[in-house]
Predict the 3D structure of the following.
Amino acid sequence: MSDTPSPEQLVDGLVRLLTVEKRAADIYMGNPQKGGVGRVFGGQVLAQALQAAQASVTDGKQAHSLHAYFLRGGKEGIPIEYRIERDFDGRSFSNRRVVAAQEDEDGSSTPILNLTASFQSPEDGLEHADSPMPDVAGPEELKSDMEMRHQMAERMGDKLSEVQRKLMLRPRPIEMRTLDRLHWMNAEPREPRAHTWFKTAAPLTDDPALHRAVITYASDFTLLGTSALPHGLSWMRGELVGASLDHAIWFHREARADEWLLYATDAPWSGSGRGFNRGRIFNRAGELVASVAQEGMMRRRKGKKP
């Protein structure tokens, strides 16, 4: 019998990970990822913080944007506390401020992320969309990223440490299929653009708040790496040191995270030890469902020559 979890088990685990528990008035707790090692994935903290904010808005308003700053790298294996501040509640809009923190060994609390989310009551309005979906191959025509990861791990052999190999090949609840060569696939400088299809590996419930949280979780994949593409360098090969500094998402329309979504990313600038990245998320109908922006620290690892 295989020890590899099924797609349904992987997605059930993701849903549990992104389900925060109310501990007191406007205080929620997010569980750590099972078997996580090292630093907490930024998308997890973003999604859990959004879930805490969404749980505090009970009058039918829906999250339409979030803006977050990563303060410190979170540690795997430790729960994360989310404290809510109700900064504004109006007829059409509400605002929530969230501080994510982890408990230190001495019992003190250390903030790792600040997030502000805005909510709006659904309404009709003037519409336009001047952001056409890129004309790219559909996901059915592409190999899965996991298949390419296994091929790369085989080619790299002993160049990968056991920890790197496990991290690279661990089963994932988000299935991804990439049209371009991402930073870990390629060592040649190339245009700072990438296109990746993604969806959960198994169906989700119909809860729109959960779908927004999963899209938020997945939006932290491939984004910062786009600014590494012109330099032909990769975190996977140990050539870069980096971390997300901030993250913003605007939700334009409802979308299902268990149906294929195209994530088109570009990086118009890098410098001063930072890279700036943008993302657009489209559904299969070609509609823009979300926009993303992120700046991250990006430095050449010492000892690595140009």
In short: The domain at 142-300 is CATH 3.10.129.10 (Thiol Ester Dehydrase; Chain A). The helical segments are 7-17, 42-55, 145-156, 162-169, 208-218.
